[in-house]
Fold each of these.
Amino acid sequence: MVSLVLKYGNNILQRSGNTMTGSPASPVVNFNASGLTDSQVTITKGTSINFYDTTTKNPTSWSWNLGTGNPSTSITQNPTGITYSTTGTTNISLTATNNWGSDSLTKISYINVISSGKKLAINLNAKSVDAIPYYTGITWTPSGMSTRTWIWNYLPSDLLGSPPTTGCTMSLKCTDNTSSNYTISIINPVFDSAYDNGKSTTTNTGIYPDDVLKYSLVNTSFSPVHVENLKLSGLNSLMNYKITLLGSRGAWTSTTTYVITGGTSKDGTTVSLSVNDNVMNTVSVSGVTPSSSGIIIVGVDNLDSGGYINAIEIDEE
């Protein structure tokens, strides 16, 4: 009797006479993200990860559903560089096929995307201008709130001439003293003045520290009406940011309007704030996606007796 043995991958079929023993096998699907065996993989918003097929029984084609990733589907065996820019969990599915059939697996809530939580705080007029740049840790207790300790970014003297000048870019640190890869610079037209006449609580009980409430950049050229701009650079164009602004001027009846531009998702959005004796109020624009080159521009207009900006707070959403 003639015996014939056929091997297909790891599957062995044996034929003896007219009888075939053994059986072909369809794939048994499995996969992981970045080589991890965890039941859930947590990544930071804006991060790119790779997926790896670990299916057995020799699959020859693959169909991935990558949830909220970009791209969201793939037919490669091991998709790479999948970016997740939406917080929350998402399911991942893989269907693998060979000549004998197919198999599918969905891992529920497999990818957990969290915000990095980066926060930056910038005071737009340094009380001392002898260091370029410098960062100062301040502890204060806003009225009715818990005590805070943040690293504040103070603008260097290059930006604080009379009037403040363009051409200097300052690297920014997060409030926890880690690097951010973000920078700030003044762009044309320049601000007219750097003032120290903001309202102070004298007890560090304002929404921001007294040193921040006291010092500001000012757009005081009343005619013609125009906007003076600060440029934030190096931001992640796949993320959303909340931009919080504060202006303060002691004993001065004035409202400052701020405008977001720079090719962002919120271009042209304006918010206004009464700066008169202001120690507790801020205005914010949420959901700001930077331009494709990672830029957000914050403008300060001079429509109502000058425009004041003491602080910018940047939060990754």
Note: The helical segments are 210-214.
Amino acid sequence: MPQISTEQGTAKPNTRRFNTSSDYATRPTGFTIFLREFLPWQLVRFLVINSKIILMTRQNEKLH
């Protein structure tokens, strides 16, 4: 492996290997995929998230 010359001496080039198993995201489970595709669950999530947004905006409007 060739060495790179620096002011302080010699340094080895970056030897990190890419594309190891730790570089990839985990795969979703079957249950996770089911929840992503299940429309009634998506409707519940939609209502919960939007109600939180509405509450936050109302609280912000009370402050001004």
Note: Residues 29-64 form one domain.
Amino acid sequence: MARLLLASLPTTQTEERAADRLVGIRLSFEMLPEQPAPELLDAIVLADRLGYYGCYSADEIYHKDAWLLFAAAAQRTERIRLGPCVAPIYMRDPTYVAQLAATLDELSDGRAEVVFGIGNIAMLEQYGVEWRGTRPIARLREAHQVMRTVLDDGAIDFEGDFYGYSGVTTASRPVQEHLPLKIGAMGGPKSMQLAGEIADGLHTACAYSPEALGYAVEHFRAGVDAPAET
């Protein structure tokens, strides 16, 4: 992690020009939390001290529990933002994701955010969850609406195509006026476009070439420019 930060410090004219292109870039790291919990917490603390913007973690059965780790890390860090990437809406009801996020936001004094998505496809298959042909993009849209309502209002009455609630309330309230809800997407393009349309950002994986990142940006911007769905 330190090596990555040092590599961005300009020492020549060429490096200065490269550094200019990095203006506005936020460095974060993604955990697959399988190491001993104390080591994972120490890594988050180190990232906080080094000035990393955020720490994200897979929210999957294969690893240590991301939400519990972040709750512990919140007490030992000051600036770094914390959140799952991704919270799987086929596995967790969005009201519970909102409750978890609001609680983490209180513990961290306003540093929580959520990256949500369909989830790990292999994991869904292992659990016997059928997602193909179930309108996953429409479900993502509705899950966002549910989470936004619970985070903003602390209550929800809702009847949609995928979720329904009557008089649901929670005492879990975020510190942030607007807790960010972002969408995690890999292949796209529809999930990337949806992120640009309704979410507070896009996280994408396995996109390490200029072409792959350009593809994600192109479709995210298409969503930003799309007319709002009524």
Note: The first strand starts at residue 28 and ends at 31.
Amino acid sequence: MTPACVLRSTRHGDHRRGGHHARGFLTALLMKTLLKVMIALVAVAVLALVFVRSAQSTRAQPFTIARQHLAGWTLTLAPDADPLGSSLSITPKAELMPPLARDLFARMGESLHYPPPAMPVVLRSEFQRAIAGVLTPEALLDAAREAGLESATFRPRCMARHRISAPGVVRGVYFLLFDLPPFTQFREQVAQRLRAAGRDESLFDPMALSPVLIAADLDGSFSGWLPLRADPEVDCFAPVVVE
């Protein structure tokens, strides 16, 4: 083999070795870059998880109600234009809802609408469909007083919510759910009087309405959520502490 051939062979070997080194360098650089990207993605995911859990923890913290605000509630006949669609309702003290509304807004970070504070006992639709002609509104009010609704012990069970999502629309409502046996007993008594008067049982379902106090909703359509039959296992998201 001539010296020229040896020289060309050596140069070709140098080029091949140089190509291998370049490819190795690029591969190592790519692996390092991918590793950095993966680490960054994991860090973002961890931060997102921490943020979500923190937000959920904050929302699940107990709401606080002053004990004196759970007494002195009054039964009233609601006006025709009542935004809750009530015929008969029981109204808490005016001091009850403002602190809860502020707390709810701070936790949820949503634009909220607030109804007048009142717990519907009998809805206007129920009265017109089933009760009218058997009891007058005044007789219904007297029956509720005799059942002891105004003197009942109001025990808030939780802050609860319903949410409905559809394409382009998200609706939601927040409400206080109460343990209030006299409420259920009174509606059962109304149902018994209607049956005694020969009314169809399907016209009035005493269990269709739970003892709830709507705190806020997302669009102001308060009556659209009623009657509201609450399921504590599904609807409750935060306990309520009475102090």
Note: Residues 63-242 form one domain.
